[in-house]
Hints:
binds magnesium ion; alpha/beta; binds sulfopyruvate; nine-stranded mixed beta sheet; eight-stranded parallel β-barrel; 19 helices; Spore Coat Polysaccharide Biosynthesis Protein SpsA, Chain A
Amino acid sequence: MIYHIYMTKSQKLRKLFKEKSLIRLVGAHNGLSAKLVERHNFEGIWASGLEVSTSYAVPDASILTMSDYLAAAASMNDAVSIPIVADCDTGYGNVNNVIQMVKRFEAAGIAGVCIEDKLFPKVNSYIPGRQELASINEFAGKIMAGKETQNTKDFIIFARVEALIAGWGQEEALKRANAYIDAGADGIFIHSKSSQPDEIRSFVKAWKNRAPLIVCPTSYPSLTEREMKKMKIKTVIYANHGIRAAVKNMNTVLAHITKHGITKVDSQIVPMKEIFELQEMPKMKEDESKYLPKDKLTAVILAAGGPKGKIKTFAGDLPIAMLSLKGEPILFRQIKALRKYKAGEITVVRGYQKEKINLPDVTYIDNKDYNKLGMFHSLKIVLDKLNDKFIFSYGDLVYDESIIKKLLESQEDITLVVDKAWLDNRSVKERPDLVKTTGKIAPGPRFLQLEAGGKVLKIGKKIDRNKANGEFIGLALFSKKGLEILKKVAKSVSNKFKNRKFHEAENFTSAHFNDVIQEIINQGYKVSFIDIYKSWLDVDNFQNYQKAWKGEI
Ligand code: SPV
Ligand code: MG
């Protein structure tokens, strides 16, 4: 961990005062406008009362409350690393309000505040008429109280002299400025609404650089930064140019849209990419990839085998996984269900007509020996790539999504999904994957597992159909430990049974998934199950495909 030398925003502002001949503060009203100011390399932000009021579409006349201004200043402060000087009007009331204001703005990390010597409620300085000044004593009291309230020596309080705005003249302005510096102010904001910089020039001359001066040349833009530096003005505030630019361009664009819609408007607005950058979306993505735990669940779907029997005529050269059910390939339905339950990586093992299996966002592994070797081989070629919990599925299954939900609730290491409907179904001619589990044979629909912690005792196509009490549907869940067991058991038998009968298979290379599960059981590991009653189909024959099509599962 690298800790940067931490400087408060007040310390940063004080440093700027030392190092820069002219500090430029630019008006902002929220995080976005502050961020734009920072991007253009200005030294600091003026949390402008005029801009914040405008952003609420209310007059700049003490209409909003201290909390509103504080929230706006804090949102600016959070968005940038440059210091904020908050325009705090009159301090939102008398000296008591100033004390609360200083406490709160300082605690929010605002570098400094500026209060003006008008009476509460104030009116923006450019509005003619009521520009009433507080007495010098009253305002000096506010400065003293504020300076005594601040907790850190670095917090800055500027005093704003409105004597020129109120028409009280140069002498009064100087008298006030001196009194406020005597009271402890860190600098004087001398405001003028004159269209020429003359009265500012003469004030600066008479001030003799007693303390740092701040000006706001909105009404006298002819005063250049060069001249300001020459006059030793320490800070200039460009108070409201950002919001005025925004209003102008929003007007232009909205007018264009009323006439032409949004065609051909793109050249007048920023691309979405810039918006995302301003939100710091790229940083969020970076953090996410570093710190957000990835869902460890993966899924392996075996879709290598080709269709057999009557379904073959129907499927043509399509793998069964790609047969469509109401417009959606079987595999697509499976992927949808697995994604719903947060499967991250889904691996599909292809073989027969592999190029026909081409759904996006899945990993494909091709089993070129799908015709020669047993089904387990398709899983074996994926095993090394797996290192955590995974769901195993046949590729020709159509099932109700709730089965996945139930399966994922299992806390066991190896869990098979077993259909108890087999007990009502024993007359069928096919040879399904049968299981014999612990628990009594009792036909009929049951949705609760017969006994907690039930185990699979036998699995295979050839086990006694009268002793079997369920059908393995081709869906299973392996925990991380279950995966280790599977790998270990497969490794332990691969050589030994290379040329020898392996459960129901001729040898290990032609082994079915069932054979390996039986071996796991025989080696003393627990293979658990969850039981379901119907609500799935294995589309390995035409009749089942028709049923699936009709929704009879
Ligand atoms: C503000 O930006 O809110 C100011 C500067 O106080 S002015 O509008 O010029 O008064
Ligand atoms: Mg203001």
